[in-house]
Amino acid sequence: MNVYDSARMAELLAPLGYEASDSPDNADLVLFNTCHIRENASEKLYSELGRIKPAKAEARNHGPMVVVAGCVAQAAGEEIFRRAPQVDIILGPQTYHRLPELVSASERTRMTTSRPSKTPGMIDIAFPDEPKFDALPAPKNEGPTAFLSIQEGCDKFCAFCVVPYTRGAEFSRPVASVLAEAKLLVAQGAKDIMLLGQNVNAYHGEAQTGQEWGLGRLIRALADDVEGLERIRYTTSHPRDMDEDLIAAHGEVPALMPFLHLPVQSGDDGVLKAMNRGHSRDDYRLLVEKLRKACPDLVLSSDFIAGHPGENDRAHENTLKLIADIGFAQAFSFKYSPRPGTPAAAHDDQIPEETKNKRLFEIQALLKDQQAAHYAACLGKSYPVLFERKGRYEGQLIGRTPHYFPVHVSAAESLMGQSAMVQIASVGTASLGGVLQHDPQSTSPTDPVHFDSPLATETLQERPSC
Ligand code: 5AD
Ligand code: SF4
User: Could you say which of 80, 103, 124 is where a domain stops?
Assistant: First the structure.
């Protein structure tokens, strides 16, 4: 989401004469788009600000203009001016469409003020009524993959998470504006669109009929109406918002790729309750079964938190067991990080750092093995690979299989942005290696990844391929 927002902010500043620079050293304006999800991410802002300090002479309105945007800006607000007086503008994630106004005002102040450091900085961290998306310029995208933000904010209030406080209440963009943006992206060459939202499957956008559409219906419309759109994915989802229509879409819409990021956070019912997730371990297992029934080829990704307050050894073992039972193709796992103002941060039963480290290590070791098993299962099979970028070596392109696995292939540069059938010939730790098969226009079906986990194997044997 921050990558998407950063691109939009660069587009907003283009009419003012700004263009992207390779290095902050020669920039007229330095914008930090920040993340507040964990303490590490948040603290990065201050160390990065420290690095541009010399150029800025510790005074506002001198040197490069400094803008702090994103969720740290939203959460810390004026505190950022106190800790870093060289910051000129603070801007929240819901108000970044106002960036040109603030930058112009700051430019004017610079031209007129003689005592720069005494001038107050500008701050806008409101949750405005006007929809931000209506005020954004049409996106410009390069290459075959694109992000499209369709939903923002979250009403789930998981006990550990700052997102509902920084991104605000759930908001879904209207269907027509999503379809129009998708068409524009495809006209610019995009073939693979990732639909974005903090809780994207809670999407409930208004259609032109006045009806509310869920994500499944939106995906069907994108697949039917946007000619040239080959691949659709979405991230990130909450298990409770996975409705029947969306599950069915995984089996019925060929453009919806067989990859789903579905965070579970923990495999223990007590911890899930303390997290206020609103689902149990078995709810998640059942959901995965339904999804695999709809699309037996589906591979899963997830998020895990190690050492949430109240998590004991048994709870941790339950998480390991859930991971072993389900089998994930990839996952993100984090040590619990207390976030100011969230209920979990005030919990008495915080877990010692070394226990969190040990548990995270065990979770990651298991997930790493599962990713390796998924990659190994691809060996010898053929997949349509969409080439996204050049590889490190001459004559090499990198693309992705429908399961989102990266593949290195020796291929002509003319195949960039195209799909071609590739047979997987080697398996690395972070990617696959493959050889081009036949004609780039070939549309052979995807070979399923048969991953050897009890739940996956059971489901794959029972059902036909989607
Ligand atoms: N500590 C650790 N991980 C967190 N996440 C969200 N909040 C926290 C926190 N306080 C993780 C969750 C979420 C992902 C985006 O970040 O796993 O799904
Ligand atoms: Fe945070 Fe996701 Fe929970 Fe929303 S659903 S509160 S974004 S973890």
Answer: 124
Cα 447 to Cα 194, 289, 378, 466: the distances in Å are 22, 20, 8, 10
Contact predicate 238/153, CB 8 Å: no
Regarding whether 50 and 186 lie in a shared domain, the answer is no
The answer to whether residues 268 and 303 belong to one domain is yes
For residue range 236-247, what is the model confidence (pLDDT) as tens digits?
999 999 999 999
Question: Distance (Å, rounded) from C-alpha 306 to C-alpha 67?
Answer: 34
Q: Quick one: pLDDT at residue 22?
A: 84
466 located within any domain: no
Centre of ligand 2 from the C-alpha of residue 198, in Å: 7
- Does the CB atom of residue 38 touch ligand 1 within 6 A? yes
**Is the Cβ atom of 325 under 6 angstroms away from ligand 1?**
no
For ligand 1, atom 9: residue with the closest CA: 337
Task: List, in sequence order, every beta strand (DSSP E) within 116-199.
Answer: 122-124, 145-149, 151-152, 171-172, 192-196
State if residue 272 touches ligand 2 by the CB under 6 angstroms criterion: no
Q: Which atom of ligand 2 is nearest to the CA of 154?
A: 4
CATH number of the domain to which 439 belongs: 2.40.50.140
Helices (H), 188-268: 215-225, 244-252
Judge if 243 and 367 occupy the same domain. yes
Q: Is 305 in the pocket of ligand 1 (CB under 6 A)?
A: yes
Percentage of the chain exceeding pLDDT 90: 80
Does 392 fall in a domain? yes
457, part of any domain: no
Report the CATH number that the domain containing residue 111 is assigned in CATH: 3.40.50.12160
Say yes or no: CB of residue 157 within 6 Å of ligand 2. yes
Ligand closest to 266 (CA) is: 1
Index of the ligand 1 atom closest to the CA of residue 263: 18
From ligand 1's centre to the CA of 406, what distance in Å?
25
Higher pLDDT, 466 or 414: 414
pLDDT of residue 354: 98
Domain span including residue 214: 132-376
Does residue 345 share a domain with residue 291?
yes
**Model confidence at 103: pLDDT above 80:** yes
Mean pLDDT estimate for the chain: 91
- Tell whether 339 and 419 lie within a shared domain: no
Question: Do both 42 and 58 map to the same domain?
Answer: yes
Residue reference for tokens 């691809």: 378
Q: Are 163 and 2 in contact (CB under 8 A)?
A: no
339 CB within 6 A, ligand 1? yes
| 221 CA from centroid of ligand 2 (Å) | 27
Is residue 115 pLDDT above 70, yes or no?
Answer: no
pTM score, two decimals? 0.92
**Is residue 455 domain-resident?**
no
d(CA 140, CA 13): 13
Model confidence over 166-211: pLDDT tens digits?
Answer: 999 999 999 999 999 999 999 999 999 999 999 999 999 999 999 9
Q: Measured in angstroms, how far is the CA atom of residue 161 from the centroid of ligand 2?
A: 6
